[in-house]
Design goal:
Protein name: Mg/Co/Ni transporter MgtE
Organism: Phycicoccus duodecadis
Largest sheet: 13 strands, mixed
Low-confidence stretches: 143-148, 421-430
Keywords: CBS domain
Pfam family, one: MgtE_N
Helix content: 25-40%
Oligomer: single chain
GO molecular function: magnesium ion transmembrane transporter activity
CATH topology of one domain: CBS-domain
Distance between the termini: 25 Å
Number of helices: 18
Length: about 425
């Protein structure tokens, strides 16, 4: 098998990785490079590979035997410990793509440009190094001394020696290429990628995400990262993102902010959204009121089963919320009219679509009061094998619903998000 000689990282990050027997190991997500004052070219030391289970692991470049045929072939054992970036390491896709740099041209000019891709190549026995940088010109360059002029927006490839500022983080770096690389990730997995970035880079990625996508990602981040990102957004943008979050998650995040900032954000939100969050903030976080969402699926008793099924199919609903319909008298926004009972999705699937949901109510589930403790909520969910529980006030009006995912968030250790991929023991291979 021939030895690889060169590749652009943008192309590498789309390739699957296979072992010598042809079994798929995972997919390349990034390339790790290191800078040194003693070397003219940064050194490429390994690949970040996503393996089954969405775990990202490190594969040394010394294990890469081929990048031909649209695939990467590796040899030897792979360390299955979750990849953790070291202080002297830089991720090409996550940190170098779209970085502002300066490029020296043939005529001696220095022009502003933005990194679009990084070319690495094998350098004899010294391993792999960064050799070329594909850049987009940010200023027009006139024709001079008979050389071809270039215009703003044009892309060309420069040698790495002609590029200045590649190792220096800059303000205002874009994140579109990073997000394009990870567009297939679920919010929880993208959150893991963002968690591993520097605070500045996290802020840049947050700025590039749409409100809905950012809201989904924030819900999956550790508390410190959530606060950092929301605090770094403009007030109006932060309010929009909070409105897009699940109410219980948004309330938890608001409770961690200084009172002045919290009130500023609530004032910027839609009145109805803000009212729901203010109500949630009055409850202790370890009670049913503090755990619940104020936006479960709520229908009146006359609604048809077909209508109920159409509602629970909505893509924006979480799996936990989509399993249960809460049936109430009008008004149908929390706090509702009198709570009547619940209908499970399995029951909906077994009944004629034209029948009303009011005729198939499960009335055996006793609603929780908002003051019910976390222990009471957990026992009720476990005793009746439920995914969601209604929360009502003293008059029987539905205030919200507690779902099993909300409970798990509170009973797992605080650092479970950081530790969730560290359950697999490392193999024999270590990073050198």
């Amino acid at each position: 098998m021939s030895t690889p000689t060169r590749a652009f990282v943008g192309r590498l990050s789309e390739l699957d990785v296979f072992d010598p027997l042809g079994d798929k190991v995972g997919r390349v997500r990034d390339v790790v490079v290191t800078f040194s004052a003693s070397r003219a070219r940064p050194r490429a030391i390994g690949l970040v590979v996503e393996v089954p289970g969405r775990r990202r692991v490190f594969v040394p470049m010394t294990r890469v035997t081929s990048v031909e045929g649209g695939q990467v072939i590796t040899t030897g054992l792979v360390n299955m410990r979750r990849f953790e970036q070291r202080p002297n390491e830089t991720l090409v896709v996550a940190e170098l793509f779209e970085r502002p740099v300066q490029v020296s041209t043939e005529g001696g000019e220095v022009v502003a440009a933005t990194v679009q891709d990084i070319g690495i190549e094998q350098m004899g026995t010294r391993g792999w190094g960064v050799a070329r940088v594909a850049v987009r010109l940010e200023t027009s360059r006139p024709t001079r001394l008979g050389l071809l002029g270039r215009r703003r927006g044009e892309t060309f490839v420069a040698t790495v020696e002609d590029v200045r500022g590649l190792r220096d983080a800059s303000e205002g770096q874009g994140a579109a290429k990073l997000l394009e690389t990870y567009e297939d990730l679920k919010p929880a997995d993208l959150a893991e990628v963002i968690h591993d970035l520097s605070p500045q880079r996290r802020a840049e990625v947050a700025a590039a995400l749409g409100d809905e996508r950012l809201a989904d990602v924030i819900e999956e981040l550790p508390e410190d990262d959530q606060v950092e990102i929301i605090a770094g957004l403009e007030v109006s943008r932060a309010a929009d993102v909070l409105e897009a979050m699940e109410p219980d998650d948004a309330a938890d995040l608001l409770s961690e902010l200084p009172a002045e900032r919290r009130e500023e954000l609530l004032q910027k939100m839609e009145p109805d959204e803000a009212a729901d969050l203010r109500r949630l903030l009055t409850y202790d976080e370890n009670t049913a009121g503090g755990l619940m969402t104020t936006e479960p699926v709520i229908l009146g008793p006359e609604a048809s089963i077909a209508e109920a099924l159409a509602v629970v199919r909505r893509q924006e609903l979480s799996t936990a919320l989509a399993t249960t319909v809460f049936v109430c008298r009008p008004p149908l926004e929390t706090p509702t009219g009198k709570f009547l009972g619940i209908v499970h999705i399995q029951r909906l699937l077994r009944e004629p679509p034209h029948n009303p949901v009011g005729g198939i109510l499960d009335k055996d589930v006793e609603p929780l009061l908002p003051t019910a403790s976390l222990g009471q909520v957990t026992r009720m969910l476990a005793t009746y094998d439920l995914v969601g529980m209604p929360v009502v006030d003293e008059e029987g009006h539905l205030l919200g619903a507690v779902t099993v995912d909300d409970v798990l968030d509170h009973i797992l250790p605080e650092d479970w998000r950081e530790e969730r991929h560290d359950v697999v023991p490392p193999s024999e291979v270590t990073r050198g």
